[in-house]
Amino acid sequence: MKGQERHYFPGNNTPRGFYSYYRYILGQQDAERIFCLKGGPGTGKSTFMRRLGEEFLEEGRCVDFLHCSSDPHSLDGVLLRKERVAVVDATAPHIIDPLHPGAVDEIVHLGDFWNEEGIRQNRKEIMACQKEISGLYENAYGYLSAAEKLYNNLEGLRGKCVNKAELYKLAAGLINRELSHRELGPHRGKVRKLFASAITPEGVVHFLPTLSAGFRRSYLLRLPKGMDGSEILGLFMESALCRGFDMEVFYCAIKPEEKPEHLLIPDLGVAFFSSNQAHPIDPSALSGQVSLLELDALLEPALSPFRRELAEDNASQMDALLDRAVGCLKEAKAQHDHLETFYVPNMDFSGIEKRRRTVSEKIRQGFEPQNS
What we know:
The protein starts with a strand and ends in a 7-residue tail after the last helix. Helix 3 (123-159) packs antiparallel against helix 6. It has helices at 45-58, 116-120, 123-159, 164-179, 230-242, 305-340, 349-365; strands spanning 5-8, 11-14, 17-20, 33-38, 63-68, 71-80, 85-89, 105-109, 191-194, 197-200, 203-206, 217-222, 247-251, 260-265, 270-275, 289-294. The protein has a 6-stranded mixed β-sheet with strand order 1-5-6-7-4-8, with helices on one face. It is an alpha/beta fold. The relative contact order is 0.17.
């Protein structure tokens, strides 16, 4: 029987530039093996990882597919959660070097399979293309930085309308319902940080329904534009962590350090998802029992006509800036595709496939027999 698959992003395009949570893919202390793929654009890293993931998925293993924010159809890694094995793209902008080479990490260099002389013939074009791509990303991040300021304005306007007493009452009810059976403990839970959605050349992309599989209950926070559900999530997070629950926390691309949007608490069997204009979620797409939390009910009093006009103006300008950022990312993707044309004809893909099968066998050697 086919295994359970999940899809998400380990890095994101943000107002702070490319923001990486790669260190949370699989910790060195927890890992059985980590394979670090090295190689240029068009050398087959994503295909290498996808084929590995799909192979083990077909065998009934649980596989996480880690998508690239610069191209959501491409992969930055695959993770076999139960087997504690990861294969990751270790090239820029998320450069990863082995910390415990041989003991935990292993480099797989796909540059072993390229025709260096053929690539060097296009040296000037490659360098010019890389320079153009870097400039486009700088422009994209500039637009995102400007969009964040408008996001803050909008959040501030909406925040003045939130009934805090009702918000805390709602959070307390959730904590009592899901956590009252567990006492506060001496050991604090661990947090694994990631992104469930990303700002990509195709706009905001997410795979949120794949994250709900296996949970007995999913809470869906439906948020009006400009409203932030992170305060409720933060209160629940802190209560769960103080009771020793480990969790996965998925952050907002605009606020990659401060704003949690989704929580998964496997040992509790409970997940929280935020649905907003950027990443709407159909409740029927989530697994298990779904409890809807309509957070617009916490907004009172209504905005004055002037403040409403301000909110609409901030939202409109923010959306326009996000569109411009996405346009820059789209052009950067086009340039990257052009860059790959200098590498693809100079690659021995049959040799790379043989190396992939070798890595597959190395991974398999560490497997414990699956329960029948």
